[in-house]
């Protein structure tokens, strides 16, 4: 039973650690102009016909970046929870040649802004699940608590990934309809959806680690109580016979 618990607990640790790594890579995309941060982005669009915009723009959690000749991002100052809102003063500060779906709408601004706090909360609980997972290797309660933390992280990661997919797929379609070629960042989307899968698998393995041996241990406990009861009965009977 201990071997099975350790095996499932290790699998939970493995998948949770993988999810944390992928989330951090996505979260740090655009923070610096070094590899791999400068190749991770949500959306790339040709924005050369927008006044003051670079020829190609890439959106991340932290900023909107230009693209250099080596197909890597050139990002300026970082701003946490950077919104996806092309016509606003935070981005291009103009409506000229900006897809009309973005003009006068708060949908893209609000949806993209909610992504950041949800991914931070999900990452926090994933880290808790990772450290509590060390107890899942040897105790049932450690497995159950780790599964709860991993499941909470999975819920927040699901919200983040769905918001990201919705807002940037719509944004890509808006740019393409406006004659400005756009496509999604494959790495960011692959990392986020893979992290979501890893969190789900990690929570399942943690839960199994917490449930391994439960019936067997419960059966042994009942047997010990039953034997103790009959042992006490025999002892009492023997004592009565000796007194008579």
Describe the protein:
The protein has 244 residues and is an alpha+beta fold. It has a domain of 169 residues. Helix content is 61%, strand content 7%. The chain has five helices and five strands. A five-stranded antiparallel beta sheet has the order 4-3-2-1-5, with helices on one face. The protein is elongated and about 65 Å long. This is Cortical patch protein.
Quick take:
This protein has about 240 residues and is of the alpha+beta class. It contains five helices and five strands. It has a domain at about 1-40 and about 105-235.
Write the layout of secondary structure elements.
Blueprint lengths: L1 H26 L15 E4 L9 E4 L4 E4 L5 E2 L32 H30 L3 H38 L4 E3 L1 H26 L2 H30 L1
Antiparallel strand pairs: 1-2, 1-5, 2-3, 3-4
Features:
Cortical patch protein; 5 strands; 5-stranded antiparallel sheet; transmembrane; 244 residues; membrane; alpha+beta; SUR7/Rim9-like_fungi
* Average pLDDT taken over every residue: 88
Give the low-pLDDT segments. 216-223
Radius of gyration over C-alpha positions, nearest whole angstrom: 27 Å
- The best one-word shape is elongated
**How is the biggest beta sheet arranged?**
5 strands, antiparallel
Would you count the extended β strands for me? 5
Span of the ends, CA to CA: 49 Å
Strand content: 5-15%
Q: Strand pairing plus helix content: what structural class?
A: alpha+beta
Q: Strands of the largest sheet, in order across it?
A: 4-3-2-1-5
Helix content: 55-70%
Secondary structure tally, helices:
5
Order of helices and strands: HEEEEHHEHH
